[in-house]
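Hmm, how's this folded?
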Amino acid sequence: MKIESLDASFGAVITGVSLANLDDETWAVVYDAWITYGLVVAPEQFLTADQQVELARRFGEIEVIGGQEIVPLSNVKADGSLRGDDGMVRILKGNMDWHADSTYMPLQAKGAVFTAEVVPTAGGGTGWADMRAAYDALDETTKAKVEQLSAHHSLAYSQSKVGFDHAPDDGYVGYGFEGHNVPLRPLVKVHPVSGRKSLTIGRHAHAIPGMDAAESEQFLTDLVEQACQPPRIYEHRWSPGDAVIWDNRCLLHRARPWDMSEPRIMWHSRIAGDPMSELVEV
């Protein structure tokens, strides 16, 4: 097994290991790499659905989406045909902006296991951004300010902002649109394992209490723009069989555009957050 850090403030590539066959000693090394680097890229794993779910379970409980422990993020329907402009495609397009998973739910996700089955000939990568290093890079005045602020998080808000208002019958499962109260999350999160501070921002964040809508929007936009700059970003060009594990508590991510006349089939298993550190009142 070999672990090589990426040319960024975070992330590592791990080779010489089968994620489907981890003994306890090797699992401990993978877990430590995940905590240290935030992002672990493992090429050519070709995990089955059961193997992916089993791997995700080693990190914690699975966040069930639409009744499933593993879900496709794809422009391909179950019958093999390409999707048109339906709710799933609109979610895929919305996710091309920086975000963290499930910040719009009462319990934010801990992380995810993500694998590639079919990739387009160009585009369709995934980018990640290190919110630990982003916090560290803030000047002391801004650090003091963000430490005192929170923002509401809403999938309905973030989708409508880019012109994709949700309708119950638009082909999307509806996860995130259940009608619960909108969570209010601090802009600064302390990682429950590493103790490092990071920014909780991204496309779902809006309406900072104490600011008017325009001021809040500009402040959050500026934070994302400043945060998601080299050396704090990495974009992965997928090959079939690649597996990636990321820590959703300290990274943002985004999908990259591709020609949607080409299929892209990715598989996502979301790891539920710990209620002691990821649950907020709504």
